[in-house]
Design a protein that fits this description.
Elements lengths: L1 H14 L1 H9 L1 H27 L4 H24 L8 H29 L4 H24 L7 H4 L3 E6 L9 H12 L5 E9 L12 E5 L4 H16 L4 E4 L6 H11 L3 E4 L4 H9 L6 H4 L6 H16 L2 E4 L2 H8 L8 E3 L9 H5 L2 H8 L4 E6 L8 H14 L3 E6 L5 H10 L6 E5 L3 H10 L2 E4 L8 H8 L4 E4 L15 E3 L4 H13 L1 H18 L2 H17 L1
Parallel strand pairs: 1-2, 1-4, 2-3, 4-5, 5-6, 6-7, 8-9, 8-11, 9-10, 11-12, 12-13
Length: 550
């Protein structure tokens, strides 16, 4: 089997290069299976030879064949499969390898008895199940314990520090986290880092032909396959990386946590919200806002997600969060305060083409007229879009030119469309659907007021962008909003879903141009000072350096 592998490898490399590349990707598993198969052939052949040709008692022949197969298996696994050419620990490795083999023998018997006699599974199927489980567990033991290679740290290599970023979204996906990772990919090399990214994608395929630094895992598949493929890719690349920077606690955090545990690698976790709460609100009937959620118990599914994100956060070497408010939330998960670092997100560099478009040009390109109120966010319950739509008839009595534009996509889309239709507001309330950042900036430049009626924000990135583009802001006095907007100085703060306060704030800005000038001038100055990209990158580089030292 060993020689067949070597011959077929050369054949497929010359005839089927794409198929060969796929084989190369999983070659260690293929080698592991071939080595095991070769040992099995040696075992059976030796047993037949010693018994039939040498006339040795079959019990003794079986023992001699087992020993011969053991040495063949050990040699192939050590020197060929796992490429461990060291001789200094060979006795210890042989002893541990023998222990694993004996343990597998007993576990195989116990498992067969349990499945066949207790659960009535057909003996052949039972053997396949037990063999697969023991084979997978043995592979992990061989790879990470018996034949584990000592890794050379980047400082000893003398080359660049290597960071793997594990994220859930990446361009062309739309959203703040995608933009954030793209900025890191562009900026960290300037500080001596070599960067690779693992992400999910709506397109199948794990590679990126345009950029070999990006590895994409298709979202359109069973969650277990998706998570396993993500885990395996992080696991492979973690051998290359000095540290892993994870952008969320569940879809990217769980696979990374497991991979880092097996590899004994450090990872830094970024938390921008409470995933358990978000899923509870969207899928599992939770009605409470985030602060109340922290102190109550909910269904098993919600509590399971909560437990998972706590494990991932607690296992991280440090946690980065974009606001002091979120730091207090994560502390309630049981993570030590000194392990949590607050680094404000930046708005990045707004493209020159966007800044060169004036208000009139932006309105003309979008075919907009009137007094425009812009609200942006996922169409989810806590974003408070329902109240804004309900408020429109009252606002139209004050100013018939008011138009509400809601930019975003999400699960509440049909519900919101039905509300607009029932109130006959089709001409005054516009849903844009999901739009990219370039298009969003156009809407911001065209609008008169930015309004975010939200029950929760970790750090309102979209508010920062609106303020940077001199758009007067009204938002709620919750979460990280207080760290961005200072009431009556850089914007107006209102209570979440407070109909009268929101209406009053809108009418005040609509009538008082001096108030708008004061708020926007103060806001732009604060944004440049507090949320600069340079400051964000410097703080991240500092945390990465500290994590690598410890």
């Amino acid at each position: 089997m060993f020689f067949v592998y070597r011959g077929s490898k050369k054949f497929f490399r010359s005839i089927f290069p794409s198929f060969y590349n796929k084989i190369e990707k999983y070659k260690i598993i293929i080698k592991y299976i071939i080595s095991g198969g070769t040992a099995a052939v040696v075992d059976l052949s030796a047993l037949y030879f010693f018994t039939s040709f040498c006339g040795i008692w079959y019990v003794l022949s079986s023992s001699l064949a087992f020993l011969l197969a053991y040495f063949v298996s050990f040699s192939l696994q050590k020197f060929w499969t796992f490429r461990d050419n060291g001789r200094e620990k060979i006795r210890q490795q042989m002893y541990l390898y023998f222990i694993v083999g004996v343990a597998n023998l007993f576990l195989n018997g116990a498992g067969m008895y349990l499945l066949v006699d207790k659960f009535g599974v057909m003996y052949l199927l039972a053997q396949i199940i037990i063999g697969a489980i023991l084979g997978a567990s043995s592979f992990i033991i061989y790879r990470f314990i018996i034949f584990k290679k000592k890794r050379i740290h980047s400082k000893l290599r003398g080359d660049k520090k290597r960071i793997l970023i594990a994220t859930g979204i990446f361009p062309p996906d739309i959203g703040g986290p995608a933009t954030y990772v793209k900025v890191l990919l562009e900026e960290l090399p300037k500080f001596g880092y070599e960067v690779k990214v693992v992400t999910y994608t709506d397109n199948q395929g794990e590679g990126d032909e345009k950029d070999p630094q990006i590895f994409r895992i298709g979202r359109q598949q069973n969650i277990f396959f998706r998570y396993f493929k993500y885990f395996w890719k992080v696991f492979e690349l973690s051998e290359w990386a000095d540290i892993i920077y994870v952008q969320g606690p569940i879809s990217e955090g769980l696979p990374t946590c497991l991979a880092c545990c097996l590899r004994k690698r450090k990872y830094i976790l970024k938390v921008v919200g409470d995933y358990a709460w978000e899923q509870g609100r969207q899928r599992f009937g939770v009605n409470d806002l985030l602060d109340t959620f922290q102190n109550n118990k909910y269904s098993r599914r919600v509590e399971f997600i909560r437990k998972m994100q706590k494990i991932v956060a607690s296992s991280a070497s440090r946690v980065i969060t974009p606001s002091e408010y979120l730091k207090t939330i994560i502390m309630k998960w049981g993570v030590e305060a000194e392990k949590i670092k607050v680094i404000y997100n930046s708005i990045g560099a707004i493209k020159e083409i966007d800044l060169k478009i004036n208000k009139e040009a932006a309105r003309e390109s979008l075919n907009l007229k009137g007094s425009i109120i812009l609200s942006v966010g996922r169409l989810v319950p806590w974003k408070g879009f329902d109240l804004l739509i309900d408020l429109m008839p009252e606002l139209l009595q004050e100013n018939s030119d008011f138009k509400l534009i809601i930019a975003g996509a999400g699960p509440d889309k049909e519900k919101i469309e039905e509300k607009i239709k029932n109130l006959k507001l089709e001409k005054n309330v516009i849903l844009t659907g999901g739009i990219d950042q370039h298009e969003l900036f156009k809407y911001m430049l065209a609008a008169d007021i930015f309004l975010l009626n939200t029950g929760y924000e970790g750090l309102p990135h979209v508010v920062i962008e609106a303020m940077r583009l001199s758009l007067p802001v009204i938002t709620t006095d919750v979460g990280g909003n207080r760290e961005v907007v200072e009431n009556n100085k850089t914007g107006l703060l209102v209570e979440y879903n407070n109909r009268e306060q929101i209406k009053e704030a809108i009418l005040n800005l609509n009538k008082d141009k001096n108030l708008i000038s004061t708020l926007t001038a103060n806001a732009e100055k604060q944004i440049v000072e507090k949320f600069s990209q340079e400051q964000m990158i410097n703080n991240i580089v500092k945390e990465l350096g500290e994590a690598l030292k410890n």
